[in-house]
């Protein structure tokens, strides 16, 4: 395990001020400590700043037209919260499908949307394994190697790792905002992968925040998201990251759909026609085949076949169709 100094912050602002020299936040620790033990990256910090003692930061409340969730709210509490279940069910369902009860009891929503990629080429202790995220200008081995778990829509900056977070997908479809120590982000912008920073610690993030920026609160409009759901498909029923997932919100006869497990970021489609749920599923993955078969080859796979990541196309079509039918 990498040695580190542990500091404690009593507010999010104090935590942000302690993030100099590559220090990183420690919330529930389910991903951070795992990374420090696994030596997954050349950019591991010498200092961790614990935020678990910040008072009153694990709330879930309804206020001024929003469901407001403190960054330290546990995934298990979000999954069971009556307001979230009634007014943003897709988020409750996504939180309930993360990992296992133990991990949901420790894991926070802030940590869930700031975890690092789960790619097999990124998560290993060999610093010299090629990885577009870890090494500036590095080759992503998924393009020519095993890419069973990777993107079907190509990848930003030549990285084919997918967004590992279940709740990220629900937050994008629900039109959520994320409040940090610097600004309020729309969820869509928050999850933009910082590809210009590849080769640095910041480039390893699944979101666009600065390395000295700390998530404080999630806000979800408390009306209009009642007809929403999250469907996840993984190889195992428990303790497995999404290979394919879909968060669907139906508003005014159309659907806002975010896909998980199939791109670096939650792949978002607004105002999808749902008259024919099967056609809706086909329309959201249509682009994947186009990118795969007609891309310039620099950041896409030559061909999506069923034995590599092509299986994700059929499964995604089906889960989108099922999600829409369940809400109609
Ligand atoms: C076996 C296993 C299975 C898992 N399965 C899933 C799964 O199915 N789906 C899924 O989505 N996740 C899964 N996870 C990932 C992870 O455990 C969860 O995402 C969890 O919610 C992380 O929260 P945490 O509080 O433990 O974060 P930590 O481990 O403390 O932190 C995670 C990262 O976020 C940063 N961070 C934490 N809080 C903040 C903040 N407020 N502001 C800025 N940065 C912050 C940390 O610096 C670190 O980089 C799994 C993990 C394990 C070990």
Helix content: 25-40%
Q: How is the largest sheet built, in terms of strand order?
A: 4-5-8-6-7
Number of helices: 11
Main sheet makeup: 5 strands, antiparallel
The distinct bound ligands, ions and cofactors come out as: flavin-adenine dinucleotide
Assembly state: single chain
Weakly predicted, low-confidence segments: 294-300
Structural class estimated from helices and strands: alpha+beta
Report the end-to-end length measured between terminal Cα atoms. 50 Å
Note the run of SSEs as H and E: EHEHEEEHHHHHHEEHEEEEEHH
The beta-strand count equals: 12
Strand content: 15-25%
Mean pLDDT: 92
What would the principal axes of the Cα set say about the shape? globular
- Backbone CA Rg: 19 Å
Produce a short descriptive summary.
The protein is about 25% helix and about 20% strand.
Could you please describe the fold and organization of this structure?
The chain has about 325 residues and is an alpha+beta fold. The protein has eleven helices and twelve strands. The chain has helices at about 10-15, 30-40, 75-80, 80-85, 90-95, 100-105, 110, 165-175, 185-190, 275-295, 310-325; strands at about 5-10, 25, 45-50, 60-65, 65-70, 175-180, 185, 215-220, 230-235, 245-250, 255-260, 265-275. The strands form three sheets. A five-stranded antiparallel beta sheet has the order 4-5-8-6-7. Helix 5 (about 90-95) runs antiparallel to helix 8 and helix 10 (about 275-295) packs antiparallel against helix 11 (about 310-325). The radius of gyration is 19 Å and the shape is globular. The chain starts with a strand and ends with a helix. The model is unreliable at about 295-300 (pLDDT under 50). Flavin-adenine dinucleotide binds near residues 29, 114, 165 and 166. Flavin-adenine dinucleotide binds near residues 99, 103, 106, 164 and 241.
């Amino acid at each position: 395990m990498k040695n580190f100094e542990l500091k404690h912050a009593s507010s999010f602002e104090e935590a942000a001020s302690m993030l100099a020299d590559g220090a990183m936040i420690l919330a529930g620790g389910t991903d951070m400590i795992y990374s420090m033990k696994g030596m997954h990256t050349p950019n591991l910090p010498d200092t961790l700043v614990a935020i678990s003692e910040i008072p009153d930061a694990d709330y879930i409340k309804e206020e001024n037209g929003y469901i407001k969730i403190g960054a330290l709210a546990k995934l298990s509490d979000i999954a069971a919260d009556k307001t979230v279940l009634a007014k943003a069910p897709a988020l409750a369902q996504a939180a309930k499908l993360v990992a296992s009860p133990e991990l949901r009891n420790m894991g926070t929503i802030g940590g869930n949307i700031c975890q690092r990629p789960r790619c097999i080429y990124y998560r290993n202790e060999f610093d010299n394994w090629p990885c577009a995220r870890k090494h500036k200008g590095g080759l992503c081995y998924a393009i020519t190697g095993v890419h069973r778990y990777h993107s079907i829509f190509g990848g930003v900056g030549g990285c084919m790792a997918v967004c590992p977070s279940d709740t990220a997908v629900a937050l994008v479809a629900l039109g959520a905002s994320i409040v940090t120590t610097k600004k309020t982000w729309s969820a869509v912008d928050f999850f933009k992968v910082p590809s210009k920073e590849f080769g640095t610690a910041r480039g390893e993030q699944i979101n666009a925040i600065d390395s000295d920026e700390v998530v404080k609160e999630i806000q979800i409009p408390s009306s209009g998201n009642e007809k929403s759901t999250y469907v996840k498909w993984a190889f195992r029923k428990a303790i497995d990251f999404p290979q394919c997932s879909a968060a669907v919100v139906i508003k005014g006869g159309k659907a806002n759909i975010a896909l998980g497990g199939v791109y670096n970021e939650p792949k978002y489609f607004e105002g999808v026609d749902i008259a024919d749920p099967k056609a809706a599923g086909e329309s959201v993955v249509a682009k994947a085949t186009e990118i795969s078969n007609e891309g310039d080859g620099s950041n896409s796979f030559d061909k999506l076949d069923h034995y590599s990541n092509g299986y994700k196309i059929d499964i995604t079509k089906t889960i989108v169709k099922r999600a829409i039918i369940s809400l109609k």
